[in-house]
Each structure stands twice: as structure tokens, then as C-alpha cells.
Amino acid sequence: MSQNEATEIQFRSDVTVELIKHAASDADVLWAARVSTKGESSLEEIQADPERSRGLINFLMRDRHGTPFEHSSMTFYVRAPIFVFREFMRHRTFSYNEESGRYRTLEPVFYVPAPDRKLVQIGKPGKYEFVDGTEEQRSLVAETTKESYRQAYRAYVEMLEAGVAREVARTVLPVGLYSSMYATCNARALMNFLSLRTRREDSAFPSFPQHEIEMVAEKMEAIWAELMPLTHAAFQSSGRVCP
Fold first, then answer.
1. Which of 96, 175, 189, 210 would you label with 52, given CA atoms 20 to 30 Å apart?
2. List 34, 79, 170, 197, catalytic entry
3. For 7, which DSSP code?
4. Where are the beta strands (DSSP E) in the chain?
5. 92 catalytic per annotation
6. Coil, strand, or helix at residue 111?
7. What predicted TM-score, i.e. pTM, was given to this entire model?
8. Contact 24, 73 (CB under 8 A)
């Protein structure tokens, strides 16, 4: 049996986000901010109770003193469709390393929208909304994407088996293929990402993210909210504006 016949295509409608490592806490904001008035003695804040300084974090967020929020670090493992990564990497304040189709054979895992994914765009660019779509449209999307993926991956494997280099064979693969990467950021960079890639009614400025990158952003935000609860609460109360 050839590799082409043995390979089983997988379809997913979700994303994976995991925290790999971090050096991120509300105390990081406090000692970084207080160096301006306390000098080296601000290091005492590392062991201090951040709850006692909730007001300082709120002040920094409200008045947009942003640099104290940069003294933290979080590394996430993200697995999502390639088209999500192309949007993600517009955020150049993150550091990225993605798996390479030049150096490994890419796995046949592809994205198919879930049944609750809105399908139809109504309105002009800059003023539009998405609505559910019909059952016929849902069936068309599911069947067409799956068949397209199967054809593309068959062509990919056929070229590999013929001795074609991976970096050439991958050209037939669509952006619905899943990829994986590590993404490292600080809290300020993450807040900027969240302000643009999540849609909330209480946001000071409206944002209209694509559904799939919002799924990634929501998972990242849930993790960050546990690491830095006071900073996250201040971000929320300030209208989700990045300082």
C-alpha cells in the first residue's frame, strides 16, 4: 500500500492553544512601574501582594502608561489553520517559530467550519455583518472543502513519492491545512492582539475579527487572565484598550 492510500485525512473545526512557559504576574507590572520613583528598591515589589497595588495597575492602564506591562513573557503553542497564522503574524510584537514544510512532511489535518460558523457576508467592506447561511450552503461548504483537501493532499503525496522536494510539493496545499507554532509575547503585546482579534460589546473601539483567529485569541485570553488577573481586570474596565 502506498503512503497515499495509507494516509487518513483528518478534519477539525477547533484550534489548540497551550501555555508552554511563562514569567508573567501582576507583580511584574508593579516593580517595573515603581522603578521611576523608588530606583532599585522597587525590586521589593517582586514579593509584594499585588492586591495592595490594584489601584496602581488601574492607573497605569487608564492613563496608558504602557511600558510596565512589557516586563512579562508568555510562550504559547498554537495549532490552527495556516490562514489564521497569516493574520496572526501581522502582530510583529510577537516572536514566532512555525513548523516548516521544507523540512518535514506535513500532516493531513484540515479545517472545516463548524455548523455554528456564520457563512454569508452582508453589506459593503467597512460596514458588513455575517449571518448563518442556509443548510444547503453549509452542506456545500463541508463537502467542497473536504473534497478539495483530499485532492490536494493526494497530489502532495504523489509528488513526494516521485522524489519531488518537500518545499516544491507543498505548493499544492491549501491555507486550510493546520500548522503549529510557538508564539511569545509580553502582556502589552497580548492586549494589543486581544483588542483587535476579539469582539466585545464593552470595547471602547469596535473590532471585527475573523471567527477563526478569535477562537485562538479567546483561548489565549483565558490563560492570561489566570496569570495576571488584576491586569486583565484593568484591561477590561478600561474598555479593552491597549495601554
1. 189
2. 197
3. P
4. 10-12, 16-23, 73-81, 95-98, 109-111, 120-124, 127-131, 178-185
5. no
6. strand
7. 0.91
8. yes
Residue 72: all three cell numbers together: 512579562
Q: What is the dihedral of CA 103, 105, 106, 108, to 10 degrees?
A: 180
Burial class (CB in 10 A: 0-12, 13-18, 19+), 117: middle
pLDDT, one tens digit for every residue, the chain (243 residues): 344 444 689 999 999 999 999 999 999 999 899 887 665 666 666 677 778 889 999 999 999 999 999 999 999 999 999 999 999 999 999 999 999 999 999 999 999 999 999 999 898 877 788 999 999 999 999 999 999 999 999 999 999 999 999 999 999 999 999 999 999 999 999 999 999 999 999 999 989 999 999 999 999 999 999 999 999 999 999 999 999
How is residue 149 written as a grid cell? 483537501
Query: 3-state DSSP call for residue 13?
Result: coil
